[in-house]
Amino acid sequence: MREIGFIGLGKLGLECAEAMVNSKNRVHGFDLQARESDKVIIHQDIKDVIVNKEFIFIAVQTPHHVQYDGSQPSSHLPVKDFDYETVINVLNSVNEFVVEGQTIVLISTVLPGTCREQFIPIIKKGVNFIYNPYLIAMGTTTWDMLNPEMVIIGSNDVDRKIVDDLISFYESIMEKQDTRYEIGTLDEAECIKVFYNTFISAKIGLTNMIQDVAEKSNNINCDVVANALAKSTQRIMGETYMKPGMGDGGPCHPRDNIALSHLSKKLNLEYDIFGAIMQSREVQAKNIAKKLVSFNLPITILGKSYKPNVDYVDGSYALLIGHYINEISRLKVEYDQNWTSEPCTYLLAHKDKYHDFKFNENSIVVDPWREFKTNQKVNVIYYGKTT
Q: CB count, 10 Å around CB of 326?
């Protein structure tokens, strides 16, 4: 019988704790507020959910002020991080009773870098720490717990046994077969959680914009448009374009965003998603340019056209990067050829096309796709991989 501790039995925590209870697991719960459960053993002293427990789950809130909950306008307010005071207070309390070898599992939503920067330094030496945020929703908490789309596990511990032990625990409660476990560093797990939520927000916002355009334009049924897009699984709703790399380009995408930005103003929608998309596209290109310039070598961009195996340079992201290189430096930029025998900084703008290219020795090859491997005497930099 596993003995499990669970701290934080609020609006989602209690249902999560109860979902863990079965013939293999006994769950002990603690909350500052009075709670009742016919499954979880409720304790009045936090010590009782820590001592001799295999896992100590922490599911306390990381709230914003009520002004930021979305029920009132908030986009005009100063942006703020989550409030981690409660998590820190709980961790300090846990430290009083936890011993080496035990494992703390934090569920609460935090921004990338928070566990590493704020929580790990205060945890007692020898105690294991895992970040394990849940993808659950009010009204379906228990079902979401037992049938998850994925289980996110973040750990900076080189000992995989701790993660394997947690997976073994989850396998003992899951109803869903072949549960998908996404395992990474603490920062990566934090990132998956918050970007998962914001992808949903972006999807809803973009879909609802179709509704706004329909209302303002006339002669449009927003459901016809949305249903057509929803069934487009090759590029919109599938895994395509879900690998970070070069920005979009070509004769359609940039100009369509610009035109829809114009439409937003013409219809007086009072917001401009597409202008923001174009702005972020340009900033992302400039960030790559800054990376290339930082090596202070002549620059060769391999892949001038907007995509591989075509000659068109319309909307070429490579040319946009070249523009910013020229704007921020005096380094020479060329495309698709070795124009000097000296070491260069190469950018692999096209995925998979230049693996047989002869690079100048002692050069730097920046790969935004993070896949390039070579035996040539060059230093390969995987752009976007900092672990």
A: 14
Domain boundaries, the chain: 2-184, 279-382
Q: Which tokens hold the place of 372?
A: 């390039």
The mean per-residue pLDDT over the stretch 1-7 comes to 95
Most confident of 34-48, 231-245, 255-269: 34-48
Q: Which fold has domain 279-382?
A: Rossmann fold (3.40.50)
Long-range contacts of 84-88 (CB under 8 A, 24+ apart): 84/110, 84/114, 84/118, 84/119, 86/60, 86/61, 86/62, 87/58, 87/60, 87/62, 87/119, 88/118, 88/119, 88/122
How many degrees, rounded to 5, is the angle at CA 320 between CA 319 and CA 326?
A: 85
Cβ atoms of 88 and 104 within 8 Å: the answer is: no
pLDDT tens digit sequence for 251-280: 777 888 888 888 888 889 888 888 888 899
What is the torsional sign of CA 365, 371, 372, 375?
positive
Q: What does the pLDDT read at residue 158?
A: 67
**The CATH number, out of the four listed (3.30.70.1670, 3.60.15.10, 3.40.50.720, 3.30.365.10), of the domain defined by the range 2-184:** 3.40.50.720
Same topology between domain 2-184 and domain 279-382: yes
Classify the C-alpha dihedral 238-242-246-248 as positive or negative.
Answer: positive
What is the pTM for the complete model shown?
0.85
pLDDT digits (tens, 9 = 90+) for 277-308: 889 999 999 999 999 999 999 999 999 998 88
